[in-house]
Amino acid sequence: MLDRPEGGERAILVQLALPGIDAEKALVEFVELALSAEADVLDCVLGTRATPDAKYFLGKGKAEEISDLVKTLDAELVLINHELSPSQERNLERLFECRVVDRSGLILDIFSQRARTFEGKLQVELAQLDHLSTRLIRGWTHLERQKGGIGLRGPGETQLETDRRLLRDRIRSINKRLEKVRCSRDQNRQARRKASMPTVSLVGYTNAGKSTLFNVLTGENIYVANQLFATLDPTMRKLELPGSSNAILVDTVGFIRDLPHQLVEAFRATLEETQQADLLLHVIDISDPQWRETVSAVQKVLDELKVNDIPVIQVFNKIDLHEGWEPKVDINEGFCKVWVSAAANLGIDLLKETIAAQLHGSVSVETITLKATQAKLRAQLYQLGSVLAEAINNEGDWLLKIKISADQKQRLFGNESSTLHD
Q1: For residues 78 and 67, is the Cβ–Cβ distance under 8 A?
Q2: I need a surface site. Which of 63, 75, 125, 304 has the fewest CB within 10 A?
Q3: Distance (Å, rounded) from C-alpha 109 to C-alpha 101?
Q4: Contact, 281 vs 307, CB < 8 A?
Q5: pLDDT tier, 41 (very low <50, low <70, confident <90, very high otherwise)
Q6: pTM for the complete prediction?
Q7: Does the pLDDT value for residue 374 go beyond 90?
Q8: For residue 92, is pLDDT > 80?
Q9: Residue 128 host element (H or E)
Q10: Which residues, 6+ apart, have CB-to-CB distance to 122 below 8 Å?
């Protein structure tokens, strides 16, 4: 959707201190967003207002100050860390004589760079078209009816009407394709349910370390980078858990403060994996001084996805960056917290045990006795990989030392488990 020059664009960043906004903290994250979009940050401008200005959002004085700075620094782009209305965006572009992009537009641009799969590209394009459709009003200077005459007779539409119609047609086409993706994902989920394969979804603020944790838990090597939105396309792999149980682990797109609504809508097919999960792992960068704010931002998106009935394990990641912090599990008043470091491989076994206990109940090691008539049950235990050791007693019975979860035990033995022990 956007033609971007090689090597980024020369940009000025703008942040207002509105009521309830810590401008300096917000600006730090905005700089990271701009760098993720490969912008060349020339300068940052802070301002204070009680309420946004109707015409420029920033106020006339601040807008003229930035206009002078644009000319002085020869900037090509002004990035504003707020949601602008289409008219405010146009007014600022006329004044600055360069492109103006708000927070939503910047995040959409980053997403357009990160999408790799066909589905991901469709979802990003849908979000961009939705964003663009609100900015067509008076966005053209050639809105007069197309002229008549030989070779010039038009369809009787203004350019704006033509563009709107083309946008609607493209949005309809993308939605049809994404509907097929949703149907395919739903079929895959039903197949996993039949195979009794639960789904665990990683959620969290962008750059919290979800992909690194995903690699450590699954033994995979998916792309990891210290940048916002390094992961965009969802990845699924098998997760082997204690007690000879397995699950499907899903790595999803990271959340962020004020995530544009059109992105949440466009990525509905992907986020359905989170909505249909059996367990959520909320990964938190505990080394971030503002981690409580990031938790609130993630919870806001989860509320929008209506997943409050799904169990959550809070995974406090990056404990290696703070001296004295050790891996541990805290279970208090229904909240489960596990302290780990994915990068340093600390506490990963604790996390796996906690996931297994949450999905399947606690895991135990015990010895059972099976008669010769229970050969099928013995085979099932071997198939699960639960058997740690085996011996035969004087009566010819099997003595099995097994490692098994509570729900596997219930499923295999039912109420007869007490009669199986030696």
Answers
A1: no
A2: 304
A3: 10
A4: no
A5: very high
A6: 0.70
A7: no
A8: yes
A9: helix 118-133
A10: 174, 177, 178, 181
For strand 363-370 and strand 398-405, is the pairing parallel, antiparallel, or unpaired?
Answer: antiparallel
Instruction: For residue 28, give the nearest of 18, 13, 39 by alpha carbon.
Output: 13
Cα 153 from Cα 291, distance rounded (Å): 61
- The DSSP code for 159 is H
DSSP label at residue 323: T
What pLDDT score was predicted for residue 219? 86
Looking up tokens 């782009």, which residue turns up?
77
Residue 263, amino acid = L
State the Cα angle at 99 between 93 and 105, rounded to 5°: 110
pLDDT tens-digit map of 335-359: 899 999 999 999 999 999 899 888 8
Maximum distance among all alpha carbons in the chain? 105
Q: Phi and psi at residue 46, in whole multiples of 5°?
A: -105, 145
pLDDT tens track for 100-121: 999 888 888 887 777 777 777 8
- Report yes or no: 237 and 218 within 8 Å, Cβ to Cβ: yes
Q: How many helices (H) and strands (E) does the chain have?
A: 13, 14
What confidence tier does 145 reach under pLDDT thresholds 50, 70, 90? very low
Helix (H) / strand (E) containing 348? helix 348-360
Beta-bridged to residue 204, according to DSSP, are 283
- Whether 244 and 408 have beta carbons less than 8 Å apart is answered as yes
SS3 of residue 298 by DSSP: helix
Element (H, E) at 83: none
Token duo for residue 88? 């405010």
Q: 288: phi > 0 → left, psi -120 to 50 → alpha, else beta; which? A: beta
pLDDT surpasses 90 at 63: yes
Could you identify the residue written with the tokens 């049950």?
Answer: 377
Average pLDDT over residues 138-167: 54
Given the structure tokens 């971030």, which residue do they identify?
A: 288
Q: What is the mean pLDDT of the chain?
A: 80
Higher pLDDT, 209 or 160: 209
Q: Which residues contact 382 (CB under 8 A, 6 or more apart)?
A: none
CB contact at 8 A, 218 and 267: no
Q: How far apart (Å, rounded) are the C-alpha atoms in residues 4 and 406?
A: 55
**Helix boundaries (H) for 136-267:** 159-194, 210-218, 261-266
